[in-house]
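Tokenised fold entry reproduced for absentees:

. . .
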Amino acid sequence: MSLKIIAWPKCKNRKRNPYQSLLYGAVEALPNMEVEEFTPVKMLSTSGKVVLHVHWPDVFLDSAIGWKFWLKLFFLRGVFLIAKIRKMPIIWTAHNLKRVGQRHGNKLDRYFWPWFGKKVDGIIYMTEASKCVAEASFKNWKNIPNVVIPHGHYKPIFENLEFIKPRANSSAEYLPEILFFGSITKYKNVYKLLEAFLELPPGNSRLSIKGELSSNSPDTRLTEILSKLPKERKEEVEFQNRFLDDHELVQAITDCDLVVFPYSDVLNSGAAIFALSVGRPILASNTALFRELQSLVGEDWVYLIDGELDKSTLLNGLNRAKALNTAKRKPDLSKFEWSTIAEQSTDFYQQLIAEREK
């Protein structure tokens, strides 16, 4: 008998985040596995062995404006009630926990997180670090069945892309390039990267910042510094205030030498995995997440920022990256294969189904 997964979302968010489409594509490749995109009708009509797998219920609520928060909370509680009535285990992948600067942070703390912890049947953490933070933040979560399954690599996204040009680092005019990409919010500290870059001698490198400024928690310090760039540095700094499509993003990472993530508050980073998937080393904050990633991929590919990001740390990371890229080496991402991740995920689904049937 097949196992059916109602995924919220399955792949409708693929352009913005391909994680779910890669995960569920691998799950559907396994025998007797079916995955459906979440809708209320699917919740009511799907029969047999079924699990509900949710990913960002807090973001769903936090995206509401004003009183619509309460409508979305009512809807979410209704979905969970239907799942309980129909005996569907509710599984959550913990991409993030509560974050500073959320629009409805106080309401989430009071009306969502305490309730959610009592209703979810299983949690998938992507790192041991995120599991530790979650269980320290919410004491009763230690009693919720859970498993640690890593974030998969992004190679399937770009393996079939055409017209990706190789790096042109043989040109006399080539300058080594530093890149930041992704959503630009306060906790990602992109302004600190720009400040450190501006401390480097002019004319020796370039900085590209490619990502959309957050509307909820914008990095106003970054925009302030960008507006006051010295004339002689403007040609060395490129800022694109938009999300790149897959082709553009892979090309941007291919063109750079080093990708920098000076985050102050993060549990998981798909962006870091994406950079490594393309074959570029990263310089990242010395947090539990990135220390764990370094232990899996190696110190050659994940450099850590001790203390504040400054010109010395940035220059050291750039020099190490240039040497690594010149040697045309690639990181070993065998621990992040989607086929393995799909098997681990479905084993967890089956475990929770079996618990329900006892």
About this structure: The chain has a mean pLDDT of 90. The chain has two domains: 3-152+337-357, 155-333. The two ends are 18 Å apart (CA to CA).
